[in-house]
Amino acid sequence: MSASEQIAIGCVGMTHLGLVHAVAFAEKGFNLICYDDNKTLIAQLQKHHLPVNEPQLTDLVSQCSERLQFTDDLTQLTRCDLVFIACDVPTDDQGTSNLNVIDQLIDKVSPQLSDAATLVVLSQVPPGYTRQIKLPKNQLFYQVETLVFGRAVERALFPERYIIGANDPSLELPSAYLKLLSTFHCPVLKMRYESAELAKISINMFLVSTVSTTNTIAEICEHIGADWNEIAPALRLDNLERDLNTIIKLGRSNSTDVGVVDAWLHNSLHRRDWVLRCLQMNVLDHIKNPKICILGLAYKPDTHSIKNSPSIALINQLKNYQIIVHDPVVDGKKIANITQQIDSMKAIEGADVVIIMTPWAEYQKLTIDLLQQHMHGNTIIDPHRVLKINEDERESVNYFTLGQHAMKTKEKELNYA
After folding, report:
1. Residue 407 DSSP one-character state
2. Topology of the domain comprising 8-192
3. Is the whole model's pTM more than 0.70, yes or no?
4. 75: exposed, middle or buried (C-beta count within 10 Å: 0-12, 13-18, 19+)?
5. What is the third-level CATH fold of 274-413?
6. 366 pLDDT above the threshold of 60
7. What is the pLDDT at residue 235?
8. Where are the extended beta strands (E) located within 124-240?
């Protein structure tokens, strides 16, 4: 029996974060006890019906099935040497985290831990949270998660580094935890709990600064005829409002100037509404009761998640309009104010405007000619530049994309029926 097979690892919370990490650990040869108190979810997982969509995930669950035990029996965690609290943390409309779910899980799990077991908080929590957990500090750690929707399995299998929060960073990590981390062959950075908790936010703040700069330059491009895609390889539109709000609250409570963070947040919200402004000026102001087709509901391609989805935010702002949607993965039955088609061409049929909100690969197969055959209008809003469109085609439609000067048909040709 190998060293990894002798170690039992528990993952608590079988949504995106917990499931992806459990599979990554199992792929390295470790035995996983995957706990969730949702009996229906566990029953589905036991049949390999996954609640999330990520490249490679379904195949890896099948390949590692002998090392993955899905259970709603909390007592199974008593056998674990190492337990991760790994549920996704819900946020409200203002980006504020609801930590009650983490509190409740820790309260349930802690009595099940053996005297030698280690508890690792993998869920994202604000600075100061881990230290207040009532467990012996030599058994308690915080680990920064760096998953990205659509690339989560890749990031979990091949991490750039591990950032670990500890009560005393100078001490060696518990042997089971160290053995697990060492199998991934990447640097392990140990620091105080609070430093690790803030490190996650810090990483995202540096990202926010580049996103805000990109957004500003791209918007200028749209007005002066420049092309952002000629300036940089892609336009980044990550939603990082939770971390911005956390920093603003921390700063204000400690008399720290967070004006620049306020500006980043304002810029993020301004740029998020680009599609709505474009739609308002070019369609809603001219067509009574337009038929709006939205392609893509997911936050980004290769994921099922609609949390922080720009598409959902747009739909919520268009409650008085007829909206037809399509997404290859997301089931929109619970989303108000829409009609969902299982075929993208049926969604496009008769539309006055087509908006490509999620750059799924299948939408790259669409052509201007095909869209014009099925649409009633001639306005296409394509923020991520999914369509491959030449200059001649741009003259036949009202085409709008982020970071590029808009091309409109001549006023007399506009289809404002």
Report:
1. B
2. Rossmann fold (3.40.50)
3. no
4. exposed
5. Rossmann fold (3.40.50)
6. yes
7. 38
8. 140-143, 162-166, 188-192
